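Enoyl-CoA hydratase domain-containing protein 3, mitochondrial structure dump, as promised
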Amino acid sequence: MSEQSEALVKKVTDNGITTLTLNQPERRNSLSVAMLEALSTELESVSDDPETRVVVLAAAGKVFCAGHDLREVREQFDSHEFQLKLFNLCSKVMQQIVNLPKPVIARVAGVATAAGCQLVASCDLAVAADTARFATPGVNIGLFCSTPMVALSRNVSRKHAMEMLLTGEMVDAIKAERLGLVNQVVDEQALDEAVYRLAKTIAGKSGFTLRIGKEAFYKQLEMGLAEAYDYTSEVMANNMQAADAQEGICAFLEKREPDWKDK
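structure tokens r here:
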């Protein structure tokens, strides 16, 4: 990993939980090309890491993520090639999160706007401090949040997504929870406790089972009802042949803790 990657995204693994921290608070943890490349590298590194069962995505400072780096964007106004590279790279990172074979929990303190809001919506779960705020404010500067819209519209209802996209107004943490953008809202002082309690609970499950379950969840969402049932029936039948499924069932019936082998 490069020194730049180390500087922009910090990585710490403890008891099966890997925390990736956006680490450029002086730039409001903006998703510059360098930041996106660093985050992409770290996501790739944890994908096959047997020590990682759950990923927590956090940010240093008072802002979770302010979206794209508008200074960088302004410097490249005349380069369609750069703009396309930036948005394609951002889209790649969001899909890496969805396709990562480990659950990803967003730890949100402060503001998450535009692509920062997209980042939260792309994570499997999100826990927010009561002081957190969210917005897709591109419409306010003449640049509609079209790519953030993809993740947002897959997490909240159409009308609520359109309201955020068309008004660009801030949504507080309580409303974000009501809309389904975050799972829970806690006092800012209790944020780490809530995040890592959730992460620890998930990390205690079979990594194999988590992987196939997350993959199946997102695949079936894009299917029709009958196709989704056919697909998930096949997934469950295959899952039943796994050592962890058989161990888990036996442990339940025998009233003991399962001994996961992650296979």
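The radius of gyration is 19 Å.
lmk if u need the other ones
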